[in-house]
Every structure is written in C-alpha cells, then in structure tokens.
Write a structure and sequence with these properties.
By secondary structure, this protein is mainly α. It has 27 helices and two strands.
C-alpha cells in the first residue's frame, strides 16, 4: 500500500513564508515576475478550497495579501497617470486576480477569517482597487478576471457576517454599486448584484430613497429587464425593494412605461408566492395595493385608446391593463381584499370603466365588442384581451361578503351591466365564469339585489337561459320574486 501523502495544511507555513517575501517586493509587477510568486498564491487558493486549511490560516497570510493589493493600488494609480506597458499591466492584473481568488476562498464559511480580513482593512483597499480597475481604459481579459474575483471576494466576505456587510456598504454605496451594475460584462453585473443583495436590509433600502441613490434601484430593475435569467436582481427587487412602499412609488415615478410593466410583473410574482407572509410583509403589500388602486383610478380611461386599431401598442394603456391584473390577484387574498374593499373610489372606477368599455364595444366594432367564432380559430393577440373579464372579476372580489359594496354596485346599475356581459366572448375568455362569480357575490345575503335580477328576468331584461347556466332560477314566493341557487343536473 502506498504511503499517505502529507496533509494539505502541512504546506501552509512554507507558503506563508514565500508569500511574505513576495509582499516585500517594491512593486507587485516585480513580485509577480519573480520566481514562484503567482504560483504561491495559486497554491494557497487551491488549499483554501478545503475547510481545515481555511481554519488554520494565520493573520500574517492575509497581511501579506493586503500588502500586495495595496501596492497594486498604487501601481494602478500610476498607470492612470503614465501609460504602463500592457505586458506589465497584464502581469500585475493576473496577480491581483489571484490574490482576490485566494481571499475569496479563504473566507468561505469561516467567520474568523472574515473578521480578520475586515479588521485588517481589506474591504477599504479592495473597494478602492475595484474603482481603479473600473477606470482602466483597456480591453483585457485579465482586467475582467480581476474585477470578477474582487466582487466574488466581497460577496463571500459579506455572507452571514453583519459587520462585514455594514463595512462593505459604507465603502461601496452608492458609487461602486453604480459603476459595476452598469458594466458591460454580465458576470461583473451578476456578482455585483450578489454583493448588493447580501448587504441589503430594511434600513439600507431606505437609503435608496435619497436623490442620487435611487439610481441603484433603477439599475437593478433595468438589469432584470435585460437579463431575465438574473436571479440576484429578481431577489433584490422582490425580497428588498418591494418591501418599501415609498421606494416603490419613487421608482415608479422615474420609470418608462416598459419599465413600469416589468415592475408590475415583479409585484405580481411576489403576491403570487405560495409562502405565508408575515404581518409586516402584508402591511407593505397593502400599501402597494392602495398605491396601485390610485394609479388605476387615475389612468383607467387610457384603455379606451385601444378601441382604435392604430393604438394597439399604446404603452400607457398596457400599463393600466397590467395594474388591473395585479389588483385582481391582490383582491384574491383575504387580508389584502379587506383593505381594498374600503379603498375610496376603486369599486366605482371598476364599474364605470366596465360601462365605458361595454358601450365602446357596442358603438363600433373593436376589441371591446363581444365576438364568438364557431370555427375556433386561434387565440386573439391583443393587449386588451380579457380586460372586461378582469373588471368583472375585480368587481366580484370587492363585493365578496361586503354588503356596502353590494349595495354600491346596485346604485351604480352595475348588476344589469354584468348580466349583459355573460355571453361567450372570444375577446374575454372566461367572462361567463367571472360573471357568475360576481353575481353570486352580489346577491349573497342581499335580497334587494336578488330581487333586481328576478324582476329583470320577469320583464324580459335578463335571459332566463343565462340565469340557468349560472345555476340560478326565479321563484315566486309570497307575491315576491326570489332569486335562488339550483344544482345543475349532472351531464351523462
């Protein structure tokens, strides 16, 4: 049997000594060109992939790496003033990148090393060096590698370490984040998002509200729009930014219509999560819901622009449609529903908008005109498809077990309006089902609303076959017309 080789950590003392000698070199480019310096750092990088060598690492190693990076900063500053030869710069960048790889590996799940590095001042030196690297106007792979590794290091240094997160935030916010979030390299953007996500908390999110700092939040949203596979940007928005209602409002005011659609999609993703929410998270979403309700009331008439075929891509109208989608989802949640049911003007706006779109569809043939093709030709591609269905859904939600809102719809003549939208409509899939749902919520324990429908049927204003399809029938009881639910016969 072959004899077991020496344990990896046995090499640490010799490597630490070699690293110390390299750190004494006057310039990093001289150290990296010397015998074995870059190789020494590479060997340490490999050793620190294992937990035991990380735990055994002494402070002197990190001091040596700090000296190399500090001297690299000085050399980079000279590079900005006097053009350093590209060969010398490339050699220096290779060493800088390897130092950051070594530090990155050394602080993985090792709070001791994270604290040592922070106390030595490695965060300040690293942030300064990143800004210098960002300012170099050269296109070299070694430069990108150095930037990527530096951000990975900061991400690992911050992981699970509140003190390091605070120190990085103090040094890096907002300038470093802004420069890296707007970089052309996707990996640099991703690693920057990782660092930002790790450092953020509720207090730091509020700092984004300050004038120039808002650009950090806007940059993250823009990254998500351009790189939909970017998980970090998604998590920054859904786990942090959306939890500050004031920030949501401030961002919305600065966004283009396309960006607003993206933000609304992220809000929809957040409220559609199956995870249970804390009372604090629910309170935040209620604030967001009230904000969106006010936007819908302000902009609902924009949708009428879509009656013209020339305006099918009207972005303001599409934003309003997306707001309605989000409100429908929000009112499907009991806790958010309670607040939106009392939101001033929302129910009236929904009924009024349904009335206007219904009328517009009758005056001319357009997307709001009810159509039914017997040929079953493919789905209709238009941003307003389903808009009336969702208005009826919202009305139904707002009237769920709410007598005041039931009566309000009665006074607004909303019941005949909903019954007039019960037919199959290719432009509004599932409109019949949502109408059934709305009528049930409007008539539940509300005799006056039941009587309105019963009288409409008797006067021929409501189609009895439609009522039967809705599972309802009219019954005369003590000289009064009563609307009651019936079970449908099962189909054979």
């Amino acid at each position: 049997m072959a004899a077991a080789g020496p344990e990896p950590e046995a090499a640490l003392p010799a490597l630490a000594q070699q690293l110390g000698l390299a750190a004494r070199a006057e310039r990093p480019s001289e150290a990296s060109s010397g015998p074995g310096c870059l190789e020494t750092v590479r060997r340490l990088t490999g050793l620190f992939r294992e937990a035991r060598p990380r735990e055994m690492a002494e402070e002197s190693m990190f001091q040596s790496l700090l000296k190399i990076l500090t001297k690299a900063s000085c050399e980079m500053e000279l590079t900005c003033k006097d053009s350093m030869e590209l060969i010398t710069l490339d050699t220096c960048l290779l060493l800088v990148a390897e130092c950051f790889r070594c530090l990155r590996n050394a602080c993985v799940r090792c709070a001791k090393n994270q604290d040592v590095m922070r106390n030595l001042g490695l965060i300040e030196v690293s942030v300064h060096l990143i800004q210098l690297l960002h300012g170099l106007e050269v296109e070299q792979e070694s430069l990108l590698a150095a930037l990527r590794c530096s951000l990975q290091f900061l991400g690992n240094l911050a992981a699970g370490n509140g003190d390091s997160q605070n120190s990085i935030w103090k040094c890096a916010f907002p300038d470093l984040f802004l420069s890296c979030l707007n970089h052309h390299d996707e990996k640099i953007i991703t690693y920057c998002c990782m660092v930002l996500f790790t450092c953020l908390n509720s207090e730091k999110v509020r700092e984004l509200l300050e004038h120039n700092n808002l650009n950090v939040a806007l940059a993250v949203l823009n990254i998500y729009r351009k790189q939909l596979e970017s998980e970090w940007s998604f998590l920054i928005v859904t786990d942090h930014l959306l939890k500050c209602p004031e920030l949501v409002k401030a961002m919305y005011a600065k966004l283009s219509n396309q960006e607003r659609i993206t933000l609304l999609e992220l809000i929809m993703a957040k409220i559609s999560e199956k995870n249970s929410m804390s009372s604090e998270e629910m309170a935040v979403l209620v604030n967001d819901a009230e904000f969106l309700a006010s936007l819908f009331q302000e902009k609902c008439h924009d949708v009428l622009k879509l009656t013209s075929a020339a305006n099918t891509e009207d972005e303001e109208a599409i934003v309003t449609i997306r707001i309605l989608d989000v409100l429908c989802e929000m009112t499907s949640n009991n806790e958010q529903l309670e607040h939106l049911q009392t939101c001033p003007g929302l129910l009236e706006t929904a009924v009024d908008t349904l009335q206007l779109t219904h009328l517009a569809g009758k005056q001319t043939t357009n997307i709001f005109t009810a159509t039914h093709s017997m040929t079953g030709e493919g789905e209709i591609s238009h941003p307003a498809v389903g808009f009336k269905s969702h208005l009826i859904r919202l009305i139904g939600n707002l009237c769920y077990k709410n007598k005041e809102n039931q009566d309000k719809v009665y006074r607004l003549d909303g019941i005949p309006l909903i019954l007039d939208n019960c037919s199959i409509d290719d432009n509004n899939p599932f409109v019949n089902q949502w109408a059934v749902y709305a009528i049930r919520n409007l008539t539940e324990q509300n005799e006056r609303n039941q009587e309105v429908i019963a009288q409409m049927e008797q006067q021929g204003l409501a189609d009895n076959s439609i009522l039967k399809n809705m599972g309802l029938e009219i019954e005369k009881r003590d000289e009064r017309l009563i609307l009651k639910s019936v079970r449908k016969n099962p189909t054979s």
